[in-house]
Design brief:
It is a single chain. This protein has 5 helices and 2 strands. By secondary structure, it is mainly alpha-helical. It folds into 2 domains: 9-51; 57-121. The longest helix has 31 residues, at 21-51.
Length: 128
């Protein structure tokens, strides 16, 4: 399909007046057919990938135990930081602050989503 970018107005006028208006309809239909063919090929390749699983189901928990520990560590770091003046009296100012930072970093690392599939197995009964 003809693109206007990187052309001057003069070049665009020369090109666009040389194309008959009926040809634009044919070009548009050809482009739509091409997009349809590409989407059909992608759908067929996705179906082939699903058929290679042989009935297996992708399953992933939203809040896994590791992510739950990460949330707990983030809450703990917030609590330590909120009570920092009270803890500083007993432990000094360095220990609670370092602990809050360490708990926050651990919480962020544990809660990070790694975009991996935790489990692939066949589910015989239930919702799925």
């Amino acid at each position: 399909m003809y693109e206007v970018k990187n052309r001057s107005v003069y070049e665009h006028e020369l090109y666009s007046f040389n194309i008959e208006r009926e040809n634009l309809k044919v070009l548009y239909q050809a482009n739509m057919k091409f997009i349809e063919d590409i989407s059909r090929q992608e759908m067929l390749s996705q179906l082939a990938d699903y058929s290679s699983l042989k009935g297996a189901v992708f399953k992933r928990r939203v809040l896994s135990p590791k992510r739950l520990r990460g949330v707990g560590a983030l809450v703990a770091s917030w609590k330590i930081y909120a009570y920092l003046p009270y803890l500083a009296v007993y432990l000094g100012s360095t220990v609670p602050l370092v602990t809050a930072c360490a708990a926050g970093l651990y919480g962020m690392l544990a809660f990070a989503d790694s975009e991996t599939i935790n489990e692939i197995r066949v589910i015989d009964s239930g919702e799925n």
